[in-house]
Design a protein that fits this description.
By secondary structure, the protein is mainly β. The protein is built from nine helices and 56 strands.
Length: 1018
């Protein structure tokens, strides 16, 4: 059962004005049709008036609904669904749809900005999992909805929650619903003019204050809706706008991965290994976003025909600026004095120094990133009730989504003489003397280090039409037959820089002596511009104090490419000095290409044709009535990817003997790759009513989740190499290797699932319910990076097999678990105590994955490339040993929500806690990867060398957050409220897995946030 949430302020205000029997009754937009809700009556729904279908007017006692609209949706639906309605959404300080969704049983929220970059925390969340799976389909009013990010779903943080009337989460497939959801289906619903009895106006104004950022951010939303009866029929019009800003700050401590050391401490006993981190550091990130929404609807009805036209637009603009310190020294030069170590030899406390007397090298970067996204949706629906038996509907939609982003990093470097780190109490305590703090504010200790840029731009469009029909049987076992067709055409193009993140050194210590004569220190007048001293005020909400550092200005990150070119001239000056004025050996800086290299463009087109038939039935005359539906959906997918295949081969010396080397001329060839497949998706939904209060459900079905467009990119590089020996001028080839790397795989098939659900729902009194659901999802063709064979012909026409690394349908798995939800009010208590209630839900999920072609190696080898499957799938430690047996990513075994409610008189309050257990975030990603792991494999010819590529599994630690909201209704037209997020100022912890156990990687602090709201309605 859903937890009470933040109301779209405009709708909540309008709802608060509704009177029923002289008492205020909350109105919620809830669809009682047994299938996926839509804003207008469909041919497949009961032929009720629009207003009666869309608004559930709830019977009340005092001022509380006897049964919430969310409960009624769940109880009356044919499918297994949990909902949050507008009136509930508004009672907690959720600033994004993602935060709203995490209150629903079975739904968890991801709090990192990107799955491949867990170093950056997202206060409002970046994605969701349903029952532990990220294969989530998003809809708006029962239609497709997506962002142009290379995926298939919405970025829920882009969508203004103020425009939503309700959010429904479907957890099992139905033939009538659009295919594409395995984890679940999230349907965002908006209002229509006929949802109101007449003129409705609403306005909401609020401001949110972040105590860590020490800044307020305003929000505003408003709605006007009306309907008119004329001789030409009834007309309605609605317009809803929303604009909100958010400003947050995140402070973080980090500990670098630990390295195995046999000489970390003077006098260390022979044969012992101590694990020492490369260092510890801190960072702070300032985040600002602006989100605008516009929604309009026109509606008309006359006799048995009704139609509506809707337009939705959301715009999202984000900017964040980060100042970060990070260790980049040689971990094998570090020495520990005054050290303390744990039972597994892991470093706990001590002072780190370099054994050669040089400083510990750190980078200090300023990073700026921005993103602009927009999604527009225009839809027209027409319904016709031909007679008592037949009804038809037509639904036409056009959607257009765009996004572009720029990510820029400019760094200085600094060498600390030493660093004292204390990890004995969890979060790092970094100890600095006054002299060390002064040195960190001295420009002579800093030098210009590197630049890194990334750009991307995406556009996606879709045209869709569906036509449905319903035939209603006479009273009896069969209720109705629903059938229909749906056609779509979708295009998606994404352009990225090549390389994706273009790291370029300005001056680095490893360049001295061969490329430059010395580093570009800031105290040199030639290199002293464009930096400033940053003070980390109120760091970790005042719980920690760290030294000030010198960083590049934001102008250097935002001034690309001119600012980059100016900085790299510092390198050119020093390079010319190193070579006696000769600049021919000094390679100039070149920016990453954008839009000119085919490797950076992903061009996709997809068409689908679907047909379904679904039969609804009911045995109402049984002792325990049973109803349900059985159906089949068949969908044909035709995809086309445009891209390139590029081949390069090593030149074969004339007269070479030995193993023959196939002759293949170098080429770069454009091509279109066609991939067609058909899926049949049966479904069965049954409900048994043991009584008016107790019912059971059973659902069985099949579902698919198509690959993301980013996984379908058609760009592959192939190469041919050989090993040989030359004796007396004669070359003898001993071995030929043919390999490749694919940016994507246009021949991927969808992930498939066979899934079953069993639920029990007890609505034990007018305000309470207890529900239980067990589920099992059997998955196959899970997509992961492994190897496959790509064939190209040689000069003689014979096909050659290239072992290519890229995405494939390479695994099967399962997700099994259960959900429990409880809700009640203690309305039998005397007086004001009767206003108290509680909501609680708990989810358990267990998962397992099995590769079709297992990769199991005790030791790691090779470089950090796409072809290193052991590294990418199992993870490798800094001592060259692998991990393996890793669970599905983003899946917490345990999650729960607990809320204390109060509703009585003019007061409504919520105190809610949301928690999830630790989960695997990623493997081999930025910050916890490298190429200097120690080779400990006794069978390796390079044992003892530091040449192994490593990448750690990174985990999100268990995290819970307490939020609250209190509203007071001054009159039927005016309500004031105060909300708070993260009341306990919880710290989000990140972990990294190593042979010494799971140890702390990062600690994030976001502070508390407070919101004051005024809502008016007339």
């Amino acid at each position: 059962m859903s937890t009470c949430q933040r109301t779209p302020v405009s709708l909540a205000a309008a709802q608060a004005a509704v009177l029923l029997g002289g008492l205020a009754a909350g109105m919620a937009f809830a669809q009682t049709a047994p299938t996926a809700p839509a804003p207008a009556a469909s041919a497949a729904s009961d032929a009720k008036p629009e207003s009666a279908r869309q608004i559930e007017t709830v019977v009340v006692t005092g001022k509380r609904a006897a049964l919430s609209s969310a409960q009624k949706i769940k109880q009356n639906s044919d499918e297994i669904v949990d909902s949050i309605v507008a009136d509930d959404i508004g009672k907690l300080p959720d600033r994004s749809v993602t935060e709203v969704l995490q209150r629903i049983v079975g739904v968890t929220m991801d709090r990192t900005m990107a799955k491949n970059d867990p170093e950056h925390f997202s206060v409002e969340g970046s994605g969701i999992s349903i029952r532990g799976l990220t294969y989530v389909r998003s809809e708006m009013n029962g239609r497709d909805s997506f962002s142009a990010n290379g995926g298939r779903s919405l970025n829920f943080e882009d969508v203004p929650p103020e425009l939503m009337a309700a959010v429904d989460v479907y957890k099992n497939p139905s033939a009538e619903q659009i295919e594409g959801a395995i984890g679940g289906l999230v349907n965002l619903r908006t209002a229509l003019p006929f949802d109101f009895s007449g003129l409705k106006t609403a306005l909401s104004v609020q401001t949110t204050y972040s105590d860590l950022k020490e800044k307020s951010s305003p929000s505003l939303s408003g709605m006007v809706s009306n309907r008119w009866k004329t001789d030409l029929g009834e007309f309605g019009a609605l317009i809803n706008i929303a604009s909100s800003r958010s400003g947050t700050r995140t402070d973080a401590f980090q500990v670098e991965p630990y390295y195995p050391r046999s000489d970390a401490v003077d006098g260390q006993p022979a044969g012992t290994t101590l694990w020492v981190p490369k260092g510890s550091q801190w960072r702070t990130l300032e985040f600002d976003r602006k989100r605008d929404g516009l929604y309009g609807a026109l509606q008309w009805k006359k006799d048995d025909v009704d139609t509506n036209l809707t337009y939705f637009r959301s715009k999202y603009r984000m900017q964040w600026d980060e100042r970060a310190l990070f260790a980049q020294s040689d971990p094998y030069k570090l020495k520990v004095s005054n050290g303390e170590f744990g039972d597994n030899g892991q470093f706990l406390y001590g002072t780190l120094r370099n054994s050669d007397g040089s400083g510990i090298n750190f980078g200090a970067d300023t990073r700026s990133a921005n993103r602009n996204s927009e999604t527009q949706d225009l839809a027209w629906k027409l319904n016709w009730r031909a007679n008592e038996r037949w009804s038809f509907s037509s639904d036409l939609q056009y959607i257009r989504a765009t996004t572009d982003s720029f990510d820029s990093t400019v760094a200085t470097g600094v060498q600390l003489p030493e660093e004292t780190v204390d990890l004995r109490s969890g979060r790092p305590q970094l100890i600095f003397s006054d002299a060390q703090r002064a040195a960190l504010a001295d420009p002579s200790q800093y030098y210009w280090a590197f630049t890194m840029e990334h750009k991307d731009k995406s556009k996606a469009t879709e045209k869709a039409w569906k036509g449905d029909a319903r035939y209603k049987f006479e009273d009896g076992f069969l209720q109705d037959l629903r059938f229909g067709v749906r056609f779509t055409e979708r295009d998606a193009t994404t352009t990225n820089t090549v390389p994706g993140y273009n790291w370029s050194p300005i001056t680095q210590p490893w360049q001295i002596g061969w490329d430059i004569n010395h580093l570009a220190f800031l105290n040199d007048p030639r290199f002293s511009q464009n930096t400033y001293v940053h003070n980390f005020n109120n760091f970790f909400s005042g719980k920690a104090s760290v030294p000030s550092l010198i960083f590049p200005t934001v102008n250097t990150t935002s001034g690309y490419p001119d600012s980059y070119a100016a900085l790299h001239k510092y390198h050119d000056i020093l390079c010319a000095e190193q070579h006696g004025g000769d600049t021919s050996a000094c390679a100039p800086w070149t920016p990453a290409s954008f839009g000119t290299d085919p490797a950076g463009t992903n061009d996709q087109r997809e068409r689908t044709q679907a047909a379904f038939a679904q039969l609804r039935f009911a045995m109402d005359d049984w002792k325990y009535p049973v109803d349900g539906n059985v159906g089949l959906r068949v969908v044909r997918t035709e995809s086309r990817a445009s891209g390139y295949t590029v081949f390069s081969g090593k030149q074969v010396p004339a007269g070479a003997t030995g193993v023959p080397v196939p002759v293949i001329p170098n080429f770069s060839e454009a091509g279109n790759f066609q991939n067609n497949y058909t899926d049949a998706l049966p479904s069965l939904n049954l409900r048994l009513k043991a009584s008016e209060k107790l019912q059971f459900r059973f659902a069985l079905g099949k579902g698919i989740s198509r690959p993301d467009f980013s996984q379908l990119q058609a760009y592959t590089t192939l190469s041919q190499d050989f090993t040989s020996t030359t004796v007396n001028g004669q070359t003898v080839v001993s071995n030929v290797t043919q390999t490749g790397t694919a940016s994507g795989n246009p021949m991927l098939k969808p992930i498939k699932s066979t899934q079953g659900d069993l639920t029990a729902e007890w609505y034990f009194d007018r305000t309470g319910s207890l529900t239980f659901g067990a589920f099992h999802k059997q998955l196959r063709d899970i997509i992961l990076n492994q190897t496959f064979v790509r064939q190209i012909p040689d000069a003689s026409g014979q096909l050659q097999n290239f072992i290519t690394t890229g995405p494939i349908n390479g695994a099967k798995g399962r997700a099994t678990g259960f959900e429990v939800a409880f809700q009640t009010y203690f309305d039998k208590l005397p007086g004001w105590l009767a206003g108290f209630g509680i909501q609680a839900n708990y989810t358990f999920v267990d998962s397992k994955t099995k590769l079709y072609d297992p990769v199991s190696q005790a030791y790691c080898s090779g470089g950090n490339s796409a072809g290193n499957l052991n590294l990418n799938l199992n993870g490798c430690d800094t001592d060259g040993r692998t991990f393996g047996n890793l669970p599905l990513q983003n899946l917490s075994k345990n999650a729960y929500n607990l809320a204390l409610l109060y509703d009585r008189g003019d007061i409504s309050a919520r105190l809610a806690y949301s928690w999830r257990s630790k989960y695997l975030q990623a493997v081999n990603v930025n910050g916890t990867q490298g190429g200097d792991g120690l080779d400990t494999n006794p069978a390796s010819p390079t044992q003892g060398q530091t040449n192994v590529a490593w990448g750690l599994p990174v985990w999100a630690g268990s995290y819970g957050q307490l939020d609250a909201g209190v509203y007071y209704k001054f009159s039927e037209h005016l309500t004031f409220g105060v909300e708070a997020q993260n009341l306990t100022n919880a710290t989000y912890k990140q972990l990294m897995q190593q042979q010494i156990g799971t140890v702390g990687r990062a600690w994030f602090d976001t502070g508390r946030r407070y919101t004051v709201t005024a809502r008016m309605s007339f």
